[in-house]
Amino acid sequence: MQFIDLSHAIEQGMTVFPGDPEPRVEAVETEPPWQVSRLVLGTHTGTHIDAASHLVPEGKTITQYPPERFLLTGIVVSLEGCGEDTPIPAEALQPQLKALPAGGAVLLRTGWDLYWKSERYFRHPYLSPEAAQLLVEAGASLVGIDALSVDSSVQGTRHAHTTLLGNDVLIVENLARLDRLVGGVVYQCSFLPLPLRGLDGSPVRALAWRAAS
């Protein structure tokens, strides 16, 4: 069984959303030969998942979801033709959502992970209001994207987060290597977060592998 790692490594100097804390790693003095490190980072660092409480008042925190909520079947949707800071139209999604399993994950492949650690990464495509609503109506329980946000990072929009999180659809951002997934194929996916009690999100080690036929 081949597992496909869909995560960016967490390290100092990595790309973060404007205003979010940058990761910091420090060595802790210990008795040789033991090594211990202190890690300081935000809940939305790197490849991460948004809980409803990230935006929705009184929304669920990351530990209020059962673990199985993060283990899903899902599909990849190809959107490589979208340009810088342009909305993804619902029409680009609709034909490809026919393969979506009930309550599954939709992984949006824009190809923007190629610009990770560059200024262009911040000018990624984003979901139009109609596309976000379509994903809710299609029955997705999680939406992932290989970009900094499902909303425009340039314009500071929030309609996609509002629509998805407001309808109990989880969001995973900063995915990587979605080009290794085949369109129309159903994958098993894992987006397990750290059990950060009462918090609004968590970094994840996102994985995908072929679902059993």
TrEMBL record:
Pfam family, one: Cyclase
Gene Ontology terms for molecular function: arylformamidase activity
GO biological process: L-tryptophan catabolic process to kynurenine
The protein's name in its UniProt record: Cyclase
Organism annotation: Thermogemmatispora tikiterensis
Lineage: Bacteria, Bacillati, Chloroflexota, Ktedonobacteria, Thermogemmatisporales
